[in-house]
C-alpha cells in the first residue's frame, strides 16, 4: 500500500492539484502556505 493511500482525501486532492493542475507561478505561494500551516501545527504540540 502506498503512503498516500493512507492520507485523508483532502490531502490526496491537494497533492493531485499541485501535481497536475497547479499553475507553476502559484507553487511558491502554495509551498509557503503549507509550510506555515505545518510549523503552526508543530508549535501547538501534540493532541
Describe it for me?
With about 45 residues, this protein is an all-alpha fold. The chain has one domain (about 5-45). Helices cover about 65% and strands about 0% of the residues. It contains 2 helices and no strands. It has helices at about 10-20, 25-45. The longest helix has 18 residues, at about 25-45. The protein is flat, with a radius of gyration of 13 Å. The model has no long low-confidence stretch (mean pLDDT about 90).
Q: Main beta sheet: strand number and arrangement?
A: none
Radius of gyration over all CA atoms, rounded: 13 Å
Terminus-to-terminus distance:
27 Å
Strand content: under 5%
**CA-based shape:** flat
| SSE order, one letter for each helix or strand | HH
Number of domains: 1
How many helices?
A: 2
- The percent of residues in helical segments reads 55-70%
**How many E strands?**
0
Structural class: mainly alpha
Q: Segments where pLDDT lies below 50 for 5+ residues?
A: none
Average of per-residue pLDDT values: 90
Protein name: LytR family transcriptional regulator
Amino acid at each position: 500500500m502506498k503512503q498516500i493511500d493512507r492520507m485523508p482525501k483532502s490531502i490526496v486532492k491537494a497533492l493531485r492539484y499541485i501535481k497536475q493542475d497547479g499553475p507553476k507561478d502559484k507553487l511558491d505561494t502554495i509551498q509557503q502556505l503549507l509550510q506555515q500551516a505545518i510549523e503552526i501545527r508543530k508549535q501547538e504540540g501534540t493532541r
